[in-house]
Amino acid sequence: MNDSINPVDSKPVKAQSKARQRHVEKPPITIITKAQMAQALADRELQQRALGSDSSSSQYNETTAIQPYFSVQDLIVGYDDTIVVDGLSLDLQQGEIGCFLGYSGCGKTTALRAIAGLEESRSGKISLNNQRLTEQAARVSFAVAPAKRGMGMVFQDYALFGHLSVAKNIAFGLNKWSAADKKARVAEMLALVELSEHADKRPSELSGGQQQRVALARALAPKPKLLLLDEPFSNLDVVLRESLAMNVRDILKRTNTTAILVTHDQNEAFALADKVGVMHKGKLVQWATPSELYHEPISPFVAEFVGEGTMIDGIIKEGHVETALGDIYRRMEVYDASGQPQYCEYDYPNGTPIKVLVRPDDIIHDDDSTQTALVIGRVFRGANYLYRLQLDDGQTVLSLVASHHNHEIGTQIGILPILEHVVVFDEKDINATTWSEYDRAERIEEIR
Ligand SMILES: Nc1ncnc2c1ncn2[C@@H]1O[C@H](COP(=O)(O)OP(=O)(O)OP(=O)(O)O)[C@@H](O)[C@H]1O
After folding, report:
1. Which residues form the ABC transporter domain (predicted)?
2. Which atom of ligand 1 is nearest to the CA of 79?
């Protein structure tokens, strides 16, 4: 979504709103209709083709599309009468790291186990490196045995053999290798996870983080086509988790390993994965890069689950959205002849109540801004303060502010809303998903 706000709008939403009155001059913005935008996009494609720089046209994609290295299509897995994984589809290219992120019980581990072949799927197709691993369709039904899938697994409890040394643990999956190759591979893996000097120790003599690295080395040693990591850091303390996640990412990237991680920890997912799939009640709600999930969530559930933020009220007015922060225009990646960005009308009729997602980094603190908000709460986060700010009409937003800007609760501070990636949701969506009190209570129960 490529929407943006005009932060200096002069038209007040409500006559009595001080914040709206402080907005000065409004730059000229022409909002074009959806039909005009479709035409503009088509023209742009034609132009790109004519210039020979087109990498997005369907013609190009048809002839050069890369077959995904790993692919899952419409996977359904259930226990008895309950569907636990419901129509899961995703692709990964070789060397990419994917992640299933979601609350406890949403089906992440079941999806991972089905990919590994440890859980039977009811329907769907799984392919890895040009080999079909499962297919359950009307006329075809087969599943490659788990041991023949070429996958490695790293578990939450590491599952190391306590009576074997670190080196022997790592060598465990290499029984078909020659003694010399095995020795060389174990040494290579020990160096990779920086545990060479611990080769002869027992796992119990290592820290949790070191044990996890042994588990990783053991899983990587046989050169798996796909590595599956099930909550691999959950036994470690929070501080260690993120740094180990970055360390593991580095190791996976250096070895060009394709991997899928399961976690309920967003920081871990973002630190490790290239693509993150938010799961909810068995469905993969969105499969996207961490940045896309944060800036372009496709539903209020994803918006709330990923990152911090608040939803503020808006209303559709002549193709744009009016809010207490200013008027929001839907900016597209299409430019007119003079190089100015084009704005398209929103997909909702005039007068539709809208919710607008505002992230803490969308609200810049600026001492010189004429637009202000009241500090009603703040949390010290070392380099930053997370301020909770009240707008003139009583709605609240969050703002991430460098911690040398130390403003007391109860004071007004200048703000500059920079809503480059603003996302709007129809109020109907909000009610239909997790923003209702009922679902909040249900989720709290889930977490407990
Ligand atoms: N062997 C099983 N038999 C019956 N139901 C199961 C079985 N394993 C899991 N379930 C149920 O399937 C649902 C999804 O479980 P799953 O372990 O895949 O979730 P998850 O998202 O990985 O959760 P967590 O983060 O807590 O591990 C849950 O409701 C769980 O109770």
Report:
1. 70-306
2. 4
